[in-house]
């Protein structure tokens, strides 16, 4: 996909930031200072800083859904790092023309499934780090200066040795799948500001030609059951009523029109979602939520 | 105001963003990725993402008060869009040398009253949109790519046909006015972090030469009554006492010195505010709150 | 440190922003508009907007800990301004190759102790301000336009007269110190998102060669007592157990591994912290929290 002799880059270097630091403290701002110190003129974009603290599954899902909306060559820095100060590795990787820096804790798994990782490297060259590296903030002391090195045109082979894609850490239990009994099993990976339940069940898992089969009905089990077809807009449901929709991340989403699905179902990120496709006739094409 | 042969622009293109997306999710970050994909080097400024969910009146007030603090030529993208996925139009407009992209739901009304809209267009050219447009996130799929097109120097006449300013949607019941009985009627449009009650009652509605008539007293009815002159600094009131002031948006603001007017009056955005100018002598020039 | 004939600058001008405005309102966004109006192309970085309302001590600590992570020449604008509209001065100062604009209320004290202020000026040249200056928002009307003037290459001597470093306002009661009885007295200056208690007790105050004396034990009094050595990573304590660590700001920090020290100790910013170094033998090298 890329010329091996040249590192990926955008005309103005762009770094996206995804962390669980929130906005309360100066942690994100300080990382930006470090990046700009090493690579003046870099354009830094806050992708999300409200990953639930230390939630690798949520961050892995979010970055996989979001990175493709940025220009090719963008460097995505993902700092959700429950193992900071321990022995976990730090990774560099490329996928679909984009670049990633993050701890080796499962953050890149979904990107690998979607787009295929390549040129994965373990970041070990401490001459690129801050002169003093503490034990509590590797986002600032290691990952931000490495991001600056790359944003400034540095070559990835300076970071450390290439490693096999097989060697990186994978999350267990978070991959959505179609089971042998025909049901599709996944999880809620995030609840958004509006109370929508974002699942990791990709649209294509629900069946081929889904969007053009409006009468397909699904039994969705998220603690309580919702029997419904897939809607195409929130407003298709009555106010206060739940609905299923393929959301903006191309996965199954449970919403309540003009309300909060989280309040309706009292579920949380991490909870299981089981979907059973049902013939429309059997279900009477009636929505029951 | 502008050369009709040339689109408005700043030396480095600037796009301001105003939404009701909050900071919890990646929605804003993804929109920035889309803008930078279409228009590398654009400078994107977060104006506000905490518009109350789907509150068109609050956003309409805020953008009208804020846009003039940006450089002429700035493109202001306002995504408060309760009708997403439905049939509402998307608009492009110019006013006072600034440019605006937003849904047609009343967001531009106050700007029109203040500065006069011109060159209003309905955005219909779907070749400028994302290749696939979903039903849930037109900020990302339509408005961000259109903003990028303009930020990159694209001509507004490519967006769609010009329409009459008369044809755009207007909010009803939100325009402050001086009534026949001499009272001025408006509303609380926002409550800020400090609990200050921001009204949409422009300073000039309270009377001519206001700032130089310190003894003019007002009866202000916001559920409870506050009788006071206009202060020029919060500190002029005793700690814990309410006061009226012309705030930084050039409208009437009710505050409590070192306290929260929202907690004091237990009111909310949308609530009515009625102001009656009173001769200073009659009121004894005494503040009662 | 700097050539007196040339103002400090970065290749692309950078302005960092630290305020107590939060993210709820458009105050920060409007300040950015003003800066970009005066100095197009300036790179503006949000350092922190969640300073506790009007907490000068927290902001003074934060900016002193953070500024060095930015490129030399960065202009740091700190708007925590309880005296807005009153008679407090506005200052320009330089320290360690960085530049600062803020109200004269103690914000620069800790920087002066750490790095030494120089070229302090009182900002009085109102031709650099907004044409109309209100009484409620000097961040927008005075400090942002002055920042733009400097970011655009303007000379500091245009701002106003140089004043003595001795003449600036200092906070009282917030300087950490080693008392005559050998105890070190300081305060909690911030509680971060994770519930960590950030103190202003610099690592060097705890004793020389601290990091290489792992058996040094401390009695830490923060309402309840914690007797412990200094940890080097959060994970060294058992889950749910408190620990002391030199945090990322190079000061003493009290944390709970996988928990919240704030919830554990029920303390708040401003509370006192007293540390007594204890021979390891006497304490039995046992952690008690």
Task: Outline the structure in words.
The structure is a homotrimer of 289-residue chains. Chain A has helices at residues 27-38, 56-66, 109-115, 138-151, 261-265, 280-283; strands at residues 14-19, 43-48, 75-79, 90-95, 98-103, 118-122, 177-178, 184-191, 197-202, 217-222, 224-231, 242-246, 251-256, 272-278. With 289 residues, the first copy, chain A, is an alpha+beta fold. In chain A, the strands form two sheets. Chain A has a seven-stranded mixed barrel with strand order 8-9-13-12-11-10-14. The first copy, chain A, has a six-stranded mixed β-sheet with strand order 2-1-3-5-4-6, sandwiched between helices. In chain A, α1 (27-38) packs parallel to α4 and α2 runs parallel beside α3 (109-115). The longest helix of chain A is centred in the middle third of the chain and has 14 residues, at 138-151. The radius of gyration of chain A is 21 Å and the shape is elongated. Mean pLDDT of chain A is 90; it is low at 1-5 and 282-289. Chains in contact: A-B, A-C, B-C. The interface between A and B is medium-sized, with 33 and 28 residues.
Largest sheet of chain A: 7 strands, mixed, barrel
The SSE string of chain A, one letter per element, is: EHEHEEEHEHEEEEEEEHEH
Output the number of helix runs of chain A. Answer: 6
Indicate the radius of gyration of chain A in whole angstroms: 21 Å
